[in-house]
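Second attempt. The first submission of 3-methyl-2-oxobutanoate hydroxymethyltransferase had a stray character pasted in from the spreadsheet, which I only caught after the job came back as garbage. Lesson logged: always re-copy from the clean sequence file. Corrected sequence (276 aa) follows.
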Amino acid sequence: MYVQNAQAPARKTVTVPGLRAMKAEGKRIVMLTCYDFSFASQMEMAGIDVVLVGDSLGMVVQGQSSTLPVTLDHMVYHTAAVARGLKSTLLVTDLPFMSDRDVPHALEAGARIVGEGGAAMVKIEGAAPHILEIIQALDERVIPVCAHLGLTPQSVHKFGGFRIQGRDQDAADRVVAEAKAVEAAGAQLLVLEGVPSSLGKRVTDAVSIPVIGIGAGPDCDGQVLVLHDMLGVTPGKRPKFSKDFLAGRDSVAAAFAAYAEDVRNGAFPAPEHCFN
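This time the job returned cleanly.
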């Protein structure tokens, strides 16, 4: 029988307002995806600030070719498992594909993820008019929202694959405008994925909410990676914006600690992890 004996060091609980304070103070935010209790417990002990139960579980846990087959039941199940491993770390969970098709469905999904799963915040992709309406509705019902712009995986078919976004001037300007729009609608955190580093800086400077980059350059307020990518266990080619933090280290705990240190001191992402 497995028994979780290790205790995480005592620290102040990470809160949604606390993330904004971290941005104001210039403290980089450390975020990782997670899908189960054991890894969540290790992240808690490593002092990770934010854990994201991403619909990326469809690809790295279930073996799907995209995030689209992931259901709300899957997200609630994995969120509850992760929540049991956390005490002071903030927990965010993705709204899965088509749970954001209208306000009633998004509110039901948000209520389940927070109420049943134990998340503190839900993440939603895009900035279309109906998404802005959903962000506002969730915010009005005291469900904090993390927006997700740039390369949004649920739009993989529309993009024609997992392609870098915002490379031309018009596209970059649109991402900046979308960032301002999701903030105005009530989003309190923003994940920015797969954009040139220069655009990552523009977006980070354009909004007062924290911006967490994944393939968005070194100037974001924090960084997030997919757990399996940063441990080097994802089958096939690892994304350019990722790094194997387990290589040369003797434990998962050491890999998490190294990742946290590199994000906080600005060593990660390095130029080789960024897009021009």
